[in-house]
Amino acid sequence: MYPYGYGYYFDPTYILIIIGVIITMIASSKMNSTFRRYSRVRCHCGLTGSQAAERILNQAGIYDVSVERVSGNLTDHYDPKNKVLRLSDATYGSDSIAAIGVAAHECGHAVQHQQGYAPLKIRGAMVPAVNLGSNLSWLFILGGVILGMNQTLLNVGILLFSLAVIFQLVTLPVEFNASSRALRILGSTGIMYEDEVGQTRKVLSAAALTYVAGAASALLSLLRLVILFGGRDND
Predict the structure, then answer these.
(1) What is d(CA 122, CA 221) in angstroms, rounded to the nearest whole number?
(2) C-alpha to C-alpha distance for 141 and 155, rounded to whole angstroms
(3) For 150-195, what is each residue's pLDDT tens digit?
(4) How many angstroms separate the CA atoms of 172 and 212, rounded?
(5) Which helix (H) or strand (E) holds 78?
(6) How far is residue 114 from each of residues 62, 69, 110, 168, measured CA to CA in Å?
(7) Which of 54, 106, 175, 196 is catalytic?
(8) Catalytic (active site) residue 68
């Protein structure tokens, strides 16, 4: 049985999930529209995203990171394990403000890796635990419900889920710092003019919103679990 009749009546905590979905949708829409807008603005340097990435990496003294194309839309990422910077189709061969800005952002992660940026190292160390916790958390919660609201199982499930929330929070400074590095690099190396750096800032700020939205959504989901199952007396 669900606590306080939640199994039979409308669960008011669903509003937290709805709020999280709305926040995520707004951030995603903002990111997509901003990227589309500046993907139509050509950068004066004439470099493609992949060429800009290689130049930035070389100027940073990073020669052991390869730049590859990856399929998908906005699937750009840096793989620290294999030292590969993967750029999506919309970024790899485009010479737009948006493409070069995204490529520079990913280069920012490569620079973080080279310099041993602490939040990046913490995030990387958390990945195995977060992956395991995300898969097991709902099993513990479901088991706790099935076994008559077993508080021990529920608490373990909530604790495991909280690892994913912490991971989202640790991700924020990593992403913000990578964007800051990217903007500094683009301006100081002359790859972009000052006004182009300003346009790139809009693209990266919109991208940052998606991470903020993800963290907010995860926090709301955790709050819902705590309200429903955290410390209930089950007579």
Answers:
(1) 23
(2) 8
(3) 999 999 999 999 999 999 999 999 999 999 999 999 999 899 999 9
(4) 7
(5) strand 77-79
(6) 8, 22, 6, 22
(7) 106
(8) no
